[in-house]
Amino acid sequence: MYIMSSRRKKVKKLSLQYSYLRLEEEEVSEICSEVEGEMRSALKEHYPKEFEIFYGPAVKSPAPPVETIEDSEEFLEDSETKEEHVPKNPDVKKLYRHIVKRIHPDKQDGGNEEQFKLAAKAYEENNVATLLEIAAQNNIELTVLSPETIELLKNNIKTLENKINTKKGSSSWYYAQATTPEEKLQILKQIAKYIKENNDA
Hints:
Distance between the termini: 64 Å
Helix content: over 70%
Structural class: mainly alpha
Number of strands: 0
Radius of gyration: 22 Å
Strand content: under 5%
Number of helices: 9
Largest sheet: none
């Protein structure tokens, strides 16, 4: 009995930690997006040559989307993951089924298309943390999770922490944190230097 109670508390704490980190990730993303335009304009003004190297010459009509190396790699990774047919965690399956019964868009009462899509994505990604969050928002009682699922929950948290740390290591984050025009110019100088060095290489 004590073990089950202790495990429930552990899951609750981890779920709350994930919810906090998800909000932080949203906030960091918004901050980075907000300064992106300002940073780009400032780079163009102070370092026009480096700006053109990085962003390319201005075009009058929108260019067709170009597949980047990163896009290709992500596509291959996604394909490989799908081909492997990674077995779903039993608790993830169970939790997802409960959520679908409660919030499926076709239900007359309680249907929630936005949350349903989020839950479907979480299910595909084996993201038990998001499923637990959706379950809590819809008053779906949490079942006792297995030790394997708790490890999966910890991995979901670690992935989110890494995502936040990556964004906090970006130039747009540093630019947003700058408090004086001099600090912003110093960041632009570093960006311009990086662009030049990588172009010369």
